[in-house]
Amino acid sequence: MVMETRFPRSAYASVTVWNLFSQSIDQRFHRSTINKQSAVSDADGRVRVVAAPRDPGVANWLDTGGRTRGSVFWRFLLAEEPAEPIRCQVVAIDAV
């Protein structure tokens, strides 16, 4: 799944993949969280995040640990502006 947005000005912002029990995927073995400091954005400030079971070769990859079902949790704490809509699209991993 490819997700695109711009992190709003905020004290903290992140995106995390969760399993079916609303638990984050084990960070010791999988990159399951990206925050606004670690995210790679384009010149316009937009962030493109890809959640996939294997590395698609992009900077902002969230590793689902091989899981094909779960949730994606976006968090914006003390946002100074409204968050813009997050555009999501399911594509084949080779099309990323």
Q: Can you tell me about this structure?
A:
The protein is an all-beta fold and 96 residues long. It has a single domain (2-95), classed as Jelly Rolls (Sandwich). It contains no helices and seven strands.
Provide keyphrases for this structure.
96 residues, three-stranded antiparallel β-sheet, mainly beta, single chain, globular
Topology of this protein?
Elements: E1 2-5, E2 12-18, E3 33-35, E4 47-52, E5 61-63, E6 71-77, E7 87-89
Parallel strand pairs: 4-5
Antiparallel strand pairs: 1-4, 1-7, 2-3, 2-6
- Beta-sheet strand percentage? 25-35%
Query: How much is the radius of gyration in Å?
Result: 13 Å
Corresponding CATH architecture: Sandwich
Integer average pLDDT: 94
Total domain modules? 1
What strand order characterises the main sheet? 5-4-1-7
DSSP E strands, number: 7
List the total number of helices. Answer: 0
- Spell out the helices and strands N to C: EEEEEEE
Stated plainly, the CATH topology is called Jelly Rolls
